[in-house]
Request: fold
Amino acid sequence: MLLIDCPFCGERPELEFSYGGEAHIARTPDTASDDGWTAFLYDRTNPKGIHAERWRHVHGCGRFFNALRDTVSDKFRATYRIGEARPELE
Amino acid sequence: MAEAARRDALSLAAHTHATVTPLSACSRFVLRGRAPALAAAGAAFGVPLPREACRAAVVEERAALWLGPDEILLLAPEAERDAVAGALHAALTGLPHALVDVGHRSAALEVAGPGAAFLLNAACPLDLGTAAFPAGMCTRTVLGKCEILLWRVDAARFRLEAMRSYADYVWRLLEQARRDWTG
Reply:
C-alpha cells in the first residue's frame, strides 16, 4: 500500500488521506476582474512530473499539509506543513 | 506427522487468540485550543495533556488522547461528567478554546489477547507491530469502511472507539474475522 508521510503523524497508509487540489494558490482579491477570478478558480498547472498539492490526513490528525508528488511515478517526494516554503528537491 | 500438525494449529490459535468486548459508557470531551488552553485544561483535568503526536496520558481513571496538534480527547468515568465539565469550564475561562461533550457520540470496544493486533489488521491498514505502534499510542484510523479511534492501552489490549451508529458494523466485522481464525 502507498504510504504517505504526514508531517504530524509520520508514515500512514494512503486510505487515511484525502486529496485537496493544487497547493500554493493564493486567494484572489475580491476586487479582481472576471479574468482574475477565472484564473484563481480554474487555471491549474497540471504538470507532468513534480506537483505541489494539498492533502488532508482526514482519518488521522485531520490536518491539511502540502506534498510534492511525482505525477508520473505517483511517488511522494516530500511533505511539509502548511505555511512552510516548498522544499527544494535535489 | 499428524501430531506435529496439530501442535502447529494449537500454537497458531494461541498466537491469534483475541476477544472483543463492549466497554461501558464513559464521559468524553473533545478539547481544541492552543498551548496555554491545553496546559490549563491539563491541570484542571488532573492529567497532563500529551504534546507528543499520537500518544495517550493516563492518570487513574482519566485519560487524555492526542488526536491532532491542537485537538485532545478527554476520557473519564461516566459519573464524573458534570465535575469534569465544570472544572474545565472554570479553568478555560478567558482562553480561546472549544470544549465539546461527545460522550454519547461513540461506542467503545476492547480488543484483547495475543492476537489482538492480528485481528484488527483484518480490516485496519496500520502497522500494529509494537515497534511502530507501541503501548500508549493512539490515533484515528480506519477499520473497513469506518473511521475509528484506536488506542493501544498495553501490548495485548486495544481500546477502539467508533461512531455509535457504526458500532454494529465494527462488531460484526471483528467478530467475523475472529471466527475465521479461531474457528
